[in-house]
Design goal:
single chain, globular, 5 helices, mainly alpha
């Protein structure tokens, strides 16, 4: 894959099961809260918890629900960006259309 546009449908197909997407959403939500807390409290070590939280929820979804390997291992930056894109689409109610375009049933 050479572009994020090529990666995006692949990423969505790695998240076919609703529980996997829900775990990603929960982990990303908690990570955002922890990042905000780190800034508000001026405690940078909370950022470590934010990373651990986000990845833990996502990887549980991949290893135990989806039974695939997280895209983070091969495409770390695109995967990170795609997670926030998926989060944004979920928040705005547009994720279903994106999944449909990517051929995810």
């Amino acid at each position: 894959m050479h572009t994020f546009s090529e990666f995006w449908p692949f990423y969505l197909n790695e998240h076919k099961k609703p529980l996997t997407r829900a775990l990603h959403f929960a982990g990303t939500s908690l990570s955002i809260l922890l990042i905000a807390s780190a800034a508000a409290l001026r405690r940078p070590m909370i950022l470590v918890a934010a990373l651990l939280c986000g990845y833990s929820f996502a990887w549980v979804g991949h290893f135990f629900v989806e039974h695939n390997r997280p895209a983070t291992f091969k495409y770390p930056f695109w995967s990170f960006a795609a997670d926030f894109r998926m989060f944004g689409y979920a928040l705005t109610g547009k994720l279903g259309a994106e999944l449909q375009k990517a051929g995810v049933s």
